[in-house]
Amino acid sequence: MVLYDAFDSITEPGRPQSTPYFLRVARTRRARTVIIVSLGIFLVLLLTWRTSPSVGLLEYPEHIVTDTRKSLSRSTTAGYRILSDPSNPYSPEPIGGAPLLVSEKPQAVLNATTPSGLLKTKPSFHLLIPASHSNSKLCKTLLSAFVLGYPSPTLINYKKVFEGDGWDNGTHVGKIRGVYDYLKNGAHMKDDDLVLIIDGFDVWFQLPPDIMVSRYHSMVVDANKRLRRRYGAVTHDKPDQLGEKETVQKYTQSVMFAADKICWPNPLEDPACAAVPYSPLPNNLYGPQTDKDPEAYLNRPRFLNSGTILGPLADVRAIYDYAVKKVEEDNRGTIGDQFVFSEIFGEQEYQRETLRQASKNSWLDYLSNAIGVSDSPLASNKTINPVTTVPGKNYEFSLGLDYGSELFQTMTHSRDDVDFIRYNDSDALDAIQAKHQSLRSIPFYLPADLLKAEEPFWYTSPGNHNNDPINGILLPFSPKLDQIDLEPVWEEVPLATNLFLPSIPTLLHINGDKSILSSWWSSMWFQPYARPLLRRYVRSSQGLAAAQAAAEGGLSWWDTRGGRGGVWTEQELWMSWGEVCKKTEDDVFADGKGKWGKEEGSARTTNTFGKVMIDDEDKNEEDE
């Protein structure tokens, strides 16, 4: 007697062979198992495809189309669109020929005076810093912006006294109102300008602004591709063209906030915490415990942090407009601006997902929800407080997060994620990988944008590359103070790097563990040369520095107001470094060379714009 296994192809002796071979195979248990497994794999692939589908052109209810028109109208008003990608037919295009703020190197010109009647031809880049007072923490933020060539900051609410109710005396509510008023009323600001808003006492820049702008463009392109795949497009009438139709993607993204590992201070059941998208980062970023850490150290960032904001002025202003209404009409600002902006983000995402699940293809969502593989936060088992929607009210603000910390690195529960790396030091790189076993397969190298960037010290003096003493009439060159014996390249300087992504962010937001503000400052690549770099920066506004380029705007010169080595207030008052940062030298420079501008005796200097940079006559300070 022949014994056989049902999973073999051997047939029973004497069995007729008239049945087709493929049917006989299909009847075996092995074949049935293979078929069932194959169907299961197909279903999983189908559901995986559904998580990021190329959704067709859907016909949405009129109120959705109306909201989309509002969003498009706001973006059109901003005039600041993302770079188009000719290889992607769904990539948004510039609207109405609006100018793009492109990443180009500053241009030195010979004319140091502003030509009469010259008009600005490119969008400007503005840096706003809410800060009601000055201290060494603010001055560290300012120094990092100066030596990297960011636009002269505008301080919001400076010297303003707050006497409101609550734990912060109303400073956070005042922060929202102060920024909004400036965005609304700033005479030199245009809707298509780019604006960066940062916290004033715990943010340090580490990469130059041209890299920030270039990364912003790329990230917005990628974000809009994801939104197109997930939410599809909508067709409606063209504005001012009766009978003409146009198809646009339903949701867009133009404003970037930082991403955080924890949701605070909003309740965990609120949409700000429970309805926001899952992180697009790999779900094994920190190993098998990713997103399972009760203390959140191993969680992927997915929650909004309001300490850093970047986007077109008109779109940012629309967000602040809504935030002001929440604060002043709905009394939602008593906990702070972090609460308000997180709530706005949560409402936007809750509406997006609610409408998506109500679309024609919702059966696939239902099926994925039923078997527990849905990527929608609304399908989780968590309780979510619903948003009470108001008909006709806009909840769409083109708002998104920098999940990969390419722009903004927050530090809440992330101290162990970040280390300072010299990329030409192979031994140090080996040591880092030995310390973190999960990083052994991750190569560490400088990104292409840094490899193509100018050398680090170049950005302090784009109009005076050689730090020529001839151009130091207003701030004389001093071999003792100004001499720097090296001009390093980016591979040679320590760069704060998120080891797990890996990424080198353009700035660090030291929220969370505040001890880092003291312990890490000396590790920033520019700090050992802080004083000579600042002097070089101030001197670069002379000689070849371009008032003409200032008038043209764009990256040739950030701001038509000019000025280097100081700040503007919202009242358009210029304040020099010496005014804002007096008595901070020991903490900021830490070089033992004394007071700024008086290292070698008395001095009184003004810049090209007639503003006092260093003043020996300080009536408010007693001689020490």
**Counting H and I runs of at least 4 residues, what is the number of helices?**
18
Strand line-up across the major sheet: 10-8-9-4-2-3-15-16
| Helical amount | 25-40%
Distance between the termini: 111 Å
Low-confidence stretches: 1-19, 49-119, 468-473, 542-557
Quaternary form: single chain
Structural class designation: alpha/beta
Silhouette: globular
Find the count of extended strands (DSSP E, 2+ residues). Answer: 18
Tell me the Rg in angstroms.
Answer: 29 Å
Largest sheet: 8 strands, mixed
Give the averaged pLDDT, no decimals: 77
Range of strand content: 5-15%
Architecture overview:
The protein has 624 residues and is an alpha/beta fold. It has a domain at 1-51. Helix content is 31%, strand content 12%. It is built from 18 helices and 18 strands. The protein has helices spanning 21-26, 29-51, 62-78, 136-147, 171-185, 209-231, 271-274, 313-328, 337-357, 362-370, 426-435, 448-451, 479-482, 516-519, 530-539, 547-552, 577-580, 585-588; strands spanning 57-58, 125-130, 154-156, 194-198, 203-205, 233-237, 245-249, 255-260, 303-312, 399-402, 408-410, 418-421, 495-498, 507-509, 566-569, 574-576, 605-606, 612-614. The strands form 5 sheets. Strands 10-8-9-4-2-3-15-16 form an 8-stranded mixed sheet. Strand 17 (605-606) and strand 18 (612-614) form a beta hairpin. Helix 3 (62-78) packs across helix 8, helix 5 (171-185) crosses helix 8 (313-328) and helix 8 (313-328) packs across helix 9. The chain is globular and about 90 Å long. The termini are far apart. Residues 1-19, 49-119, 468-473 and 542-557 have low confidence and may be disordered.
